[in-house]
Amino acid sequence: MAYVLLCNIRFRKTSHLIVSSISFFVAFIVFPFFFFATLNIISFSFLCFSGMIKSTVLEIVVSHSRRRCLDRTS
Q1: Rounded CA gap, 37 and 25, in Å?
Q2: How far apart are CA 23 and CA 15, in angstroms?
Q3: Rounded to an integer, what distance in angstroms lies between the CA atom of residue 1 and that of residue 6?
Q4: What is the spatial distance between Cα 57 and Cα 22, in angstroms, rounded to a whole number?
Q5: Burial level of 43, CB count in 10 A (0-12/13-18/19+)?
Q6: For 15-53, what is each residue's pLDDT tens digit?
Q7: pLDDT tens track for 55-67
């Protein structure tokens, strides 16, 4: 009976150690990695989107100024 209780306590300690190790791994290694990866993807897509907007605005301005130059010369 005492052996069964001792094994049960050891098993609980071992399983608690395994669970706490997995929790530590997830909390401090996996979660920050995915968090920062997601943050980088969001910021990268925002930069791409703002770059597209800037290039579109620049294209509109350049074409408008070209049109004005062509209107003046003709």
Answers
A1: 17
A2: 12
A3: 9
A4: 50
A5: exposed
A6: 777 778 888 887 787 787 888 888 888 888 887 778 787
A7: 888 888 888 777 7
